[in-house]
Amino acid sequence: MKELSKTDLTKIAYDCRKATFLIEKQQIYKITLREKMELKLHLTGCSICVTFMKQSAIINQMARKLVNADSNALKLDEGFKAQLQKQVDNYLNKI
Amino acid sequence: MLQKDSESDIVDKKAIDPHHWVSRYADYLYSYAASRIKDQNLARDLVQDTFLAALERREKFEGRSSEKTWLTSILRNKLIDVYRSRSSGFDTHGVHTDINVPDEDFFNQDNGHWNDRHRPAELGIETHDALENKEFERILKACMNKLPALWLSVFSMKHIDEERSELICKQLKISSSNFWVIIHRSKVSLRSCLQKNWI
């Protein structure tokens, strides 16, 4: 395996844009071994991106929870349901 | 084992029962749609469309999934159409261009460092306790609604509905590199918005 050059390492070690990109990518897809190393190296020296990573995961969970909670809470009004039922019945009687 | 199981055929046929769809699933489908598109009238229309589409292709129901799952999958496809039409509002060539909007300088253009205004700080929401926090929920909701339509569609399809990335790219007509850029920027701006509004 090709070794990371010193300039490559310096670059990622200080590049929060790239580190956060890899954090996002890793959450939903796989990143390469090299990318994993780069990210690990960055996070060792950057507590700000560690905070970002924690918050990012919480945001995903919260967003899912938000929508799924709403998914069981709302009700359709009875009038509209009666109308729907009529449509279904009509359709089925036609055949 | 090669013999066709006639008993399961009977069960499958029984499993589809359109007369009871409205009483059993209308509320559920409505909630599912309304919680995702924030437009109650449109959500009602989608439920109606879903039932009509399901009636038309009920012969194709194979009983491999439950009736509820099957109806939900029809609704999901209709929701994707909504996401697509919403996010292509300014789209004239079938390719999205709003990805080129400057990214608000979250990072220093030269060295990739966080810029002061967007630098993450501990907010006390880094643990699972945050999931019970109503105020956090409210702010997150507001911040999500501030995202550009295409970004919100990508974010929702990926993180809430857990669709496959390839499918999202295909449905929303974006390249895979744009997909990753949107995933990244959506999160960075959501997080920044949360921090700004968090007391």
TrEMBL record, chain A:
This is Zinc-finger. It comes from Pedobacter insulae.
From TrEMBL, chain B:
Gene3D superfamilies: 1.10.1740.10. GO terms for molecular function: DNA binding; sigma factor activity. The keyword rRNA processing does not apply. It comes from the Bacteria. GO terms for biological process: DNA-templated transcription initiation. Residues 22-87 form the RNA polymerase sigma-70 region domain. Keywords: DNA-binding, Sigma factor, Transcription, Transcription regulation. SUPFAM superfamilies: Sigma2 domain of RNA polymerase sigma factors (SSF88946), Sigma3 and sigma4 domains of RNA polymerase sigma factors (SSF88659). Belongs to the sigma-70 factor family. ECF subfamily. This is RNA polymerase sigma-70 factor, ECF subfamily. It comes from Pedobacter insulae.
